[in-house]
Amino acid sequence: MDAKRWAPPAALVGCGWVLAAGALTWAFLATRPPDRLFAGVLAVALLAASLFGTLCRPRLQADATGITVRTLTGRRHFAWDRVTIRVRETRRLGLTGTSLELDADPDLTVLTRLDLGEDPYAAADALHALRR
């Protein structure tokens, strides 16, 4: 079976870059200090998120040898026999969040729909199929 890759949606990352440019423009054009501060903080946050979404592509890759997780510090490869795959649902403030947990003791990687660009249940199913 071929390798499978998961990454944040490219359209979402592109939107982040556009919003970051808008926030930077706002920060430079604002005349009041509180507006400049708010727009500057917003721009930094959007730039950081967009940079992460751009540099860490693909976020997760799986093939016959195992999985590779990409972070800002580099790539980590784990063989299938070291990885436990779980989907976890958490409820907070009345909302349910779903995440994919990849436990390669002692490393735990938690990926959400935003990281994967796909439902964590679907990603887990694909990972289990590749593992076989």
Automatic annotation (TrEMBL):
The record's annotation in InterPro entries points to:
CFP-6_PH
Q: Which residues cross the membrane?
A: 37-56
Q: Which Pfam families match?
A: bPH_6
Residues forming the Low molecular weight protein antigen 6 PH domain are 57-131
What highest taxon heads this organism's lineage?
Bacteria
Entry annotated with the keyword Transmembrane helix: yes
Q: What keyword terms does UniProt attach to this protein?
A: Membrane, Transmembrane, Transmembrane helix
- Its protein name is PH domain-containing protein
Origin species: Saccharopolyspora flava
